[in-house]
Design a protein that fits this description.
single chain; 165 residues; Alpha-D-Glucose-1,6-Bisphosphate, Chain A, domain 4; 8-stranded antiparallel β-sheet; 5 helices; 8 strands
Length: 165
């Protein structure tokens, strides 16, 4: 499994994942940049994501939904606030209404950093919450386990890409 560590810091109101992959930094960056690749891993296997819009640029917006085992939909949105390819990007992440547009409520803040390592690429995802209540709510919804399962799908995606070349 590519997840090296996951840590919940209640004082800083953060959830941090560190994952390492046997692939170049440019290849791992593509997993976030390309919506068809992103939807193959964003969300745990039982809640796959579908991106209906993905403007991977500063100021860009994404709209997606995750589909549960019973066909239920959980829509979400991103507002990309910083892109410095292939080293870092930042985004706000929130829930959407049924029409796909942002629902009321405070988004979480995501910062993803990429670094080259001897074995390939390491990326770190730091999610910052606005309150301890929001952090607790997201943990109760299964965010920590779900993100771990989602990241666990990336090695297979990278292996599929290597085999098709």
């Amino acid at each position: 499994m590519p997840v090296v560590s996951s840590d919940t810091d209640r004082d800083a109101l953060t959830l941090t994942f560190v994952a390492e992959f046997d692939a170049s930094i440019d290849r791992v960056w593509q997993l976030w940049e390309d919506p068809r690749q992103l939807e193959r891993w964003w969300g745990p296997p039982s809640w796959p994501a579908t991106f209906v819009r993905h403007e991977f640029r500063e100021g860009g917006e994404s709209r997606y939904y995750m589909t549960g085992p019973e066909g239920e939909k959980a829509p979400g949105w991103w507002k990309i606030t910083r892109v410095d390819a292939p080293h870092v990007f930042e985004f706000d992440d929130g829930f959407s209404n049924e029409d796909g547009e942002p629902a009321p409520g405070e988004p979480v803040r995501g910062v993803v950093t990429f670094e080259e390592i001897d074995a390939g690429t390491r990326f770190t995802i730091v999610t910052t919450f606005v309150s301890e209540e929001q952090l607790d709510e997201m943990l109760k919804m299964g965010m920590k386990d779900g993100m771990g399962e989602a990241l666990g799908q990336i090695d297979g995606l990278l292996a599929d890409a290597r085999q098709s070349h």
